[in-house]
Amino acid sequence: MSTRSCAFLLILAAVVMPIAAGQQKGKGKASPAKASGPAPRKPNGKPDFSGVWQPPRMADVTKDEACCKGVKNLPFTAWGKQQWESYDATAKGDYAGACLPFGLLRSVGGPHPVQIMQDDKYIAMLYEQNSWFHVTPIDGRPHPKDYDPTWFGNSVGHWEGDTLVIDTIGFNGRTRVDTIGHPHSDQLHTIERFQRTDRDHIDYVLTIDDPKTYTKPWDSVRRWTLHPEWEIMEYSCEENNKSLWEGRIKVPQPAQ
């Protein structure tokens, strides 16, 4: 088994996830096939994304999944390639194993549900993953001129017809694209496109634009599935992570 594969397994073990919402009572069973209805709309006529959704698990964005096609050959810059080839979560520590915020990219690619709450002015993503949340204005305002770099970045949204477009900048550079550790820098700029194609699905396109890490932007295309029978639950990584409070987890350092 490769060093990176071993590191990947250790990361999963270190986080020690509580029971996922999909395994709660009444969950984890396949729902009978049924015809989907039309996408609901808000009183203002815009699509309503409210609900509890299961994004696809994207532990490695280069691998094909049942729902999605992986990006086989990521267009690394020399710096990006060095960051990827030198990544060793076992030796250097993984920020997720230390219960630090997963950030936008790993939160939308994780195994846990996301509840969306929406009104005319804002959309809120409530991640079951460690009970994080991210609120985005969707009234067309620009990014502020002054902002502090953060784990989830500074997001603003606007509508292109029935597609909600969320533009995010201002990342702190301390996170990774996926669980296996594909890199990005603090120059990361993401564009998310949400299109509710019917009652039960969102077509989701994530564009990664990071000129320090990649020679050109690239897209990850995914489909989210609605689960109206689910409710998100409390998740505390710190509470369950013995390796953290027993001192075996190293504090990870950001890429230089």
Task: Tell me what the structure shows.
The chain is an alpha+beta fold. It has one domain: Calycin beta-barrel core domain (Lipocalin). Helix content is 15%, strand content 25%. It is built from six helices and nine strands, in the order αβαααββββββββαα. It has helices at residues 3-15, 78-85, 89-92, 103-108, 237-240, 242-245; strands at residues 51-54, 114-118, 122-127, 132-137, 154-160, 163-169, 189-198, 201-209, 218-226. A nine-stranded antiparallel beta sheet has the order 4-3-2-1-9-8-7-6-5, with no helix packed on it. Strand 5 and strand 6 form a beta hairpin. Mean pLDDT is 86; it is low at 1-33.
**How many angstroms does the end-to-end distance come to?**
28 Å
Question: CATH superfamily, called what?
Answer: Calycin beta-barrel core domain
Fraction in beta strands? 15-25%
Low-confidence stretches: 1-33
- Please state the oligomeric state of the protein chains shown: single chain
**Total number of helical segments?**
6
Strand order of the largest sheet: 4-3-2-1-9-8-7-6-5
CATH architect. name: Beta Barrel
CATH topology: Lipocalin
Brief summary of the model shown:
This protein is of the alpha+beta class and 256 residues long.
Task: Compile the SSE list and pairings.
Elements: H1 3-15, E1 51-54, H2 78-85, H3 89-92, H4 103-108, E2 114-118, E3 122-127, E4 132-137, E5 154-160, E6 163-169, E7 189-198, E8 201-209, E9 218-226, H5 237-240, H6 242-245
Antiparallel strand pairs: 1-2, 1-9, 2-3, 3-4, 5-6, 6-7, 7-8, 8-9
